[in-house]
Amino acid sequence: MAAKKWVIGNWKLQGSLSSNQALIEGIRARLPALDERVGMAVCPVFPYLPQVGGLIQGSGIELGAQNLSEQAKGAYTGEVAGAMLKEVGAKFVIVGHSERRSYQGEDDALIAKKTRAALDSGLIPVVCLGETKEERDSGETWDILLRQLNAVFDLIDAAKDEVVLAYEPRWAIGTGVSATPEMIADVHGFLRAYLVAKDAAFGARTPILYGGSMNGANAASIAAVKDVDGGLIGSASLKADEFVVIYEALRAAD
Ligand code: 13P
Asked: Which entry of 168, 188, 242, 248 is annotated as an active-site residue?
């Protein structure tokens, strides 16, 4: 069974009640009926989840959050638990994004706990991995990816858990310079082999997304790469026309 493809918009720290509405209405106006092989999801900041959940009703677009606590409940001021995200309609939650690794100091151990917390709440974690420019230049890419994978997979049960992986080379995020199709093919092939080694069926059904300056202009060439099962889109997901062009590119690829 081939993995389902997903086009997921990570809105990051952006949006407002009015701009969210305009964006979702813009996407819905341009979107053909969703193909069952290619899903779409949007990930606004926490306060807008209920609003956006209402706006996407009946469209087939799914809702995701950008973060969750590793804790289920308790005296953790400012945290948000997976069950709460689930209750307001989230299907996905992004975990391990490089911006949280960099700015919030999240390490592999915490990301693994958050991944487990998401799964235990009935959410699908979108687990982000990727190397820095320095790590790539010094030939450490595979070691870094393996370290990030092993931490998370220590707490994942490949026989039953459902996850999405996102390869997001840090140097490609928000820079306008995406990884080349050759680099993406190499990494995605490596990730697929890792997943298949855990469990053949798990490896085949787990979507592997690419993220990092994916946009309307490069979506078709990235979508055509073997083992690319979609995209995790930052800035281009805030433009309805471009986000739908990316969706169409994924739909058109085999
Ligand atoms: P950009 O598409 O803006 O490069 O961001 C990618 C990303 O970080 C998605 O999570």
From this structure: 168
Any idea what the Cα angle at residue 90 is, between residues 114 and 146, rounded to 5°? 35
pLDDT bin (cut points 50, 70, 90) of residue 81 is very high
| Residue 254: pLDDT band with limits 50, 70, 90 | confident
**Does the pLDDT value for residue 126 go beyond 80?**
yes
235 lines ligand 1 (CB under 6 A): yes
- Domains, the chain, in order of start with CATH, read 5-252 (3.20.20.70)
CA of 176 to the centre of ligand 1 (A): 10
Q: Which atom of ligand 1 is nearest to the CA of 178?
A: 4
CB 66 within 8 Å of CB 99: no
User: What distances in angstroms separate CA 25 from CA 28, 77, 102, 242, 254, one per listed residue?
Assistant: 5, 34, 33, 14, 28
What is the tens place of the pLDDT at every residue in 196-224? 999 999 999 999 999 999 999 999 999 99
Q: Which of 175, 213, 239, 245 to mutate to test the pocket of ligand 1 (most atoms within 8 A of CB)?
A: 213
Write down the pLDDT at residue 247.
Answer: 98
Of the candidates 62, 97, 188, 248, the residue annotated as catalytic is 97
Per-residue tokens: 149: 């994978």
